[in-house]
Amino acid sequence: MMLSDKFLEKARNELREDETRKEQALEHFREWLNKHPYIKSIRQDDVFLLQFLRTKKYTMDKVFNTFENCILAQKKYSKWFDFKDSDFDRMMELYQTGYIYPLAERDEDGRRIIFIQLRRLNPDYFTSADAIRLSAVLSASLLEEEETQIAGVATIIDHEGMTMKHTSLFSVADIVDFADCLKNAVGRYKQLFLVNLPSFAVFLLDVARSTLSDKLKKRIVLPKNMDDLKNYINPSMLPKEYGGDLPEAEHMEIFNQYFRSVRPNLEEIRARVIDWTKVPNFKTSESEAVGSFRKLEID
Questions:
Q1: Do residue 68 and residue 110 come from a single domain?
Q2: How confident is the model over 219-262, as pLDDT tens digits?
Q3: Transmembrane segments in this chain: where (predicted)?
Q4: Residue 199 CA from chain centroid, whole number
């Protein structure tokens, strides 16, 4: 696909990307993959490989390390990433509630904005696996867009209506496993808006923030409510129900149509072949996973 001048310039300035470097890196990446000792079958198209090249700004040793860790983590935690037809049906059921979806427009920096409304997640019906699977498939879908690979993603989480039942959905094991996945995440995650954060969650946030770098701390913003959020993003981008231009249903349908076009790429994960007998010391202890937030690399 052809990128606009805006994204070509952004890739050049922020990722050190030009056409020559991109083509050479893709060729090097494929040569490395074809000789890989335990990853035997996997996608090698440009869009997929560029997800990793752009995440690590073409530093090839980091690219290869992230690629291995990400692919192994997705196989290890197949409960979240091995997308069966029944999983997609369940995810779409949750999607239709409006729990999570990307806004239709990008912001002025070209970022995709993911909007999460916790009150739409019924903790008596949906599980933590449902929520994590849907978040994973939505994020993976957006990374099929080269513009998103370059400009990144910001996330809005509206905590209005959040209850203790929502927090109890996620077990300690879920948190540990999710931290391990987060450590190996691909993509440029630029900002997190935590709106209407309840008092009982502020303490948990303070604990989590104590483990983060100053750079990452600055990316967490705490608007008091959805009106306050409008001081940070263009209000017209929000659903019409919050003062924006398009109704929520249109935002959701726009992504739903796009998702249908990229779903075959996401289903490829089931066809990947890994020779586990040749994977060196692939074990993640609980202490390693709990410390994952300290190890996060961000651009």
A1: no
A2: 889 999 999 999 999 999 999 999 999 999 999 999 999 999 99
A3: none
A4: 26
Q: Which two tokens stand for residue 276?
A: 């586990």
Same domain, 226 and 105: yes
Tokens representing 15 are: 């990722």
| Cβ within 8 Å of residue 174, ≥6 positions away | 128, 132
State mean pLDDT over 82-92: 80
14 and 58 assigned to the same domain: yes
Q: Which residues constitute the domain of residue 248?
A: 85-262
Prediction pTM value: 0.88
**Comparing C-alpha atoms, which of 157, 140, 151 is closest to residue 105?**
151
Q: How far apart are CA 271 and CA 253, in angstroms?
A: 28
Express each pLDDT in 188-202 by its tens digit. Answer: 999 999 999 988 777
**Same domain as 246, residue 159:** yes
